[in-house]
Amino acid sequence: MGLRPSPESLRSLFWPRSVAVLGASNDPSRIGGRPIRYLKEGGFRGPIWPINVKGGTIQGLPAFKTIDELPEAPECLIVAVPAAAVCDAVEAAARRGTRAAVIFSAGFAEADDQGRIWQDRLVAIAAETGCRVVGPNCLGLFNSRHGYAPTFTASLDHGYPKAGAVGMVSQSGAYGSHLFVLTRDRNIGMSCWLTTGNESDVDVADTIAYFADDPDTKVIAAYVEGIKDRDRFLGALERARAAKKPVVMMKVGRSAVGAAAAVSHTASLAGSDVVYDAALKQLGVHRAETTEEMLDVVYAATRGIFPETNRLGIVTISGGAGVLMADAAERHGLDVAPMPDAAQARLKAILPFAAVRNPVDTTAQFFNDMSLVTEFTRTLLGDGGYGAIAAFVTAIPRNRETGGRLKDALAKATADFPGRLLVLCMLATSEMTREYEAAGYLCFEDPSRAVMAIAALSRFGRSFARGAGSPPPALPAGAKPIPAGAALGEAEAKALLATAGVPVAAEKLARTSDEAATAAASLGYPVVLKVASPDILHKTEIGGVRLDLADAAAVRTAFAEIVAQARKERPTARLDGCLVAPMIKGGAETILGVIHDAAFGPVVMFGLGGIFAEVLKDVTFRIAPFGLDEARAMIREVKGFPLLDGARSRPKLDQEALATALAALSVYAAANAGRFRSIDVNPFIVLERGAVAVDALIETT
Amino acid sequence: MGLRPSPESLRSLFWPRSVAVLGASNDPSRIGGRPIRYLKEGGFRGPIWPINVKGGTIQGLPAFKTIDELPEAPECLIVAVPAAAVCDAVEAAARRGTRAAVIFSAGFAEADDQGRIWQDRLVAIAAETGCRVVGPNCLGLFNSRHGYAPTFTASLDHGYPKAGAVGMVSQSGAYGSHLFVLTRDRNIGMSCWLTTGNESDVDVADTIAYFADDPDTKVIAAYVEGIKDRDRFLGALERARAAKKPVVMMKVGRSAVGAAAAVSHTASLAGSDVVYDAALKQLGVHRAETTEEMLDVVYAATRGIFPETNRLGIVTISGGAGVLMADAAERHGLDVAPMPDAAQARLKAILPFAAVRNPVDTTAQFFNDMSLVTEFTRTLLGDGGYGAIAAFVTAIPRNRETGGRLKDALAKATADFPGRLLVLCMLATSEMTREYEAAGYLCFEDPSRAVMAIAALSRFGRSFARGAGSPPPALPAGAKPIPAGAALGEAEAKALLATAGVPVAAEKLARTSDEAATAAASLGYPVVLKVASPDILHKTEIGGVRLDLADAAAVRTAFAEIVAQARKERPTARLDGCLVAPMIKGGAETILGVIHDAAFGPVVMFGLGGIFAEVLKDVTFRIAPFGLDEARAMIREVKGFPLLDGARSRPKLDQEALATALAALSVYAAANAGRFRSIDVNPFIVLERGAVAVDALIETT
Question: What are the structural domains of chain B?
Fold first, then answer.
């Protein structure tokens, strides 16, 4: 595909000086008529050139019969003609100087083989000319900052976007419109909105990268069904994080039925859902399960405050609501830490019956004395060390008189703490809510949703502070590449991993039972014997492993039995003899693995051995490569973690050795992408000091 | 407390023929003024008697100076005077004939010792006179069916309740008001609303039971912080289920901080949260995590359709939304089962590019031809066997013209399927939404919330169909009661459980090593030896267990060692010798346990042994007693279930024997409530045929 154009190249898409609509219609409700209507109604200041074979006047504008008749190449071309006519038109315009094309037309890769051929041609045109192509089969876009809305979504019938901080991109046109309407209904301003359709050229990653650079866009929202280019996708998310712009993403297709439907709906490679989870977690993206969650987090993020602590202070006029919010805080990982004793004593002195620990409860006494809200809130802000304060004030703001007094009381509390996050759980008219928002507060009706949003802001804050975390370690100088196409035995797999920095158990290859006994003596008893053959991948299944052999006699017998067993079960397998290794006792069995994901390439898995991984699916994933910070996070997030950390009177095991091995494996896997289908280090035994791979398997490509 | 009055006794609370307000105020914004104002504004038809020591006229009504001056006893008395004056007034009225009293006044058990004494007196007055007492420290109630709203919540300032199907009860006044406002804002009608305050007499259970009997109440919503009487609480929920009335409950105090705050806020015994989970699950209650979830389910339940299948059909005009809804369905336990082949073929014939499996996708073609929605929806309804259909139609209904056409298209599809559930995911004005609702559809903006609500309706449907499930088995005739106060050894504990129908391993008590060897020979080798002492509860900790003893010599040695060890570690313990039992191999270790919960009494726990219970907390609970159906459900719902069901080439184990033991244990525990603190059957080994308790511990009270 050659070098990708920079995000800056999307400027012609969002800020063109001139625009032409190919297939323009005089009927403002038709696909070729709506963009002209919206451009006019939005007050777009550049020339708008309708193109229609019939010429004449279209929605009051003089129409051109062909692109060639235009006075000059439009910076952006909107295309609403049948699929068969699209490629020639886009190529002609691009060669004349058009820098962006938005193709509404359907009938491309989503339809049939002919459509796929046409779409490939669009890809080529974009690559050759540098003209950025959106769609085909898309619903268009808007840039609310200059009344530019070349789209045929009917959603603009009910109201124009309000300019603001949110950049939104959607792979689904219809759902993108749904999201736009909900966003507008919540009075959230937007900078840009784009639907990417079939993504022949411009895709979600390009758009996120553009939003990361766009100074007016402060919050990025994306609806995603699948991605095609891991590096650009991850790069765009990293660019957004570096710019401290939160990304809120719905990635659908989580369920089996959903993923099947997603594939039939787009041409994207969906990737395994757990891998998306891993990638988004690594990049600090908030993955929203529901549309409402997405908009709640987007709304909260527009406030632009991202606390770096997860400590939450709660002030309430109802004990019940305080309990409910503390529950929600625990669910979402926020810490309802108690107030310092001195601050508690001060509040007790003001109101003896009040709860003052956190949640702090002014009780109904608040209705008689609103200064309580000032005192309690100010104390939480000043003394609690909280990243955010949530205040439950129910319908007080609904009444203009009490609502005004409450606003004054809060203003007194917050005056000395600019830039601190105060979130109100309140019921009010939309006018009064606007007034509270203008005063700097976030407003939610449902206290649980308020707490969820605060938790998301705090995760963003910590992700921005952390950045990419510790970098992946360097690949060891002596690391040997995986020989693609070769069948690798256990010994070879372990030897390769050892060069990569993954510690492996000492072992010797024995071709005879005498050699086995000699090797065992030098390694020290007890030992393990395992069949050595590049053609036998699953040794246990054929009885090719003997454990805990205590002396030379046992070793000789085991050698003979293993070889006989292997000859019987796999008569055609090459047989090198047996591997002799020390029997490792104690510690905990873990599994380190790497899969090659269709969307994301090498993905590292970690889990505890046995039932944890296989029955409980208690495993976690990260996109390779990664550094020690991510490796440590992986270890801590499996449910079986207590077994590594001293649970049930066990010794505390060497988690740092494990983390080091995980990071090393991730770097090796990334360096060898394409050469293997999977890597299994199972078991990888974590000891009190150190850790060691006892078996390993590399399936090469 | 004597016999509790029946739910019918609350009729005087909700439907009094006359009402007096003690502490009445001429100021309609004050606590004693608001109820009079609301009663007048609501159009309450019975006499309203203000009582105020000053007499005169109050809000246009002639006032009385004392209760004695009233022409007759009011059927309901509203009390808004200081705490010290409350008891005498309520007693005087009750003795004269008042049948219900609602006490707004604070300063009772929530405040101090004096308040607690007054509250106890209210309890006694209610018990002696049969007058039902609400509060103290409550916000009152309303019954929207006869304009009866004796409450001082300010929420009625912004609008009266609309009469309808929802009965709501809240232990929190402020949060109850918050819930009422949100319910009214969503245009959901309510029959009654009650805040119970300190619950001196009328509590949440009474109110739920009343709603279960009230013909106009179809859906019950409750906000709960804690309960005091398990039997009435469970009885009320069972009464609601028998009446096929869904109960939606927020039970707050889930988190540690939240539970602590709940206790400081009410005087309730909060109970362990997992036990509430268990109880609510058993009774088919929907436990809502958030306020919004509560109202979504309440709203959906007002439609009155509760499918008995979890199969969901999805029709969409956007592939993306279909994927999103399929994801949500999986998350909430709905089955997006495919359409029958013939039906798929029929839809393909109508629209070749459509997805027709389920979700079915009309594609944007729908905009040109709305009959597609008719055909697709009708086919889902007629051929899919779905319990509910969810349709994504985004902003189509927002436009009056397209909205009207869509409504007609849907009416054609649903005409032949009355009583079937069709849920629309749509954006519209509230007027248009009302029209769609009047046509019989549920309307949601967020498709994920729509799917969540459908899942709740389907769980209600299955719970109503199932009812209480199989009844608890009878207590065996020979079951011996737990001797409260006695210290029980392992052998005695197992002997008791054996009489209860819990299978226990054969074992013999040996007082000497010779007896041990003889016992072992008769039981068959290998055997296990365990120290036998009523004073040593945790045998393993003192080295009091020896496993897998293969012959008489090993048994004699082990006997001597165990006895010596016990003498050394627990010199004062009574020592009976050793228990000899067959060594049981194979099968899976499970744990059956019973705790005595402060709120719910005996609660049975089930989990797999070892790390599952202790590290992973993979356990489940049920309120005792229960039958085989619940026992089977417990077994299937732990994450480790595959280990009992043949995972990883294991044999399939005897789940029915396990279920039988769980149900028997639950019945025994219920029959012995109060006699024990805990019962532990650990391990309870489930074999391929049968199951057996190997160790047991009963801590008596």
Answer: 7-301 (3.40.50.261), 312-466 (3.40.50.261), 506-582 (3.30.1490.20), 588-700 (3.30.470.20)
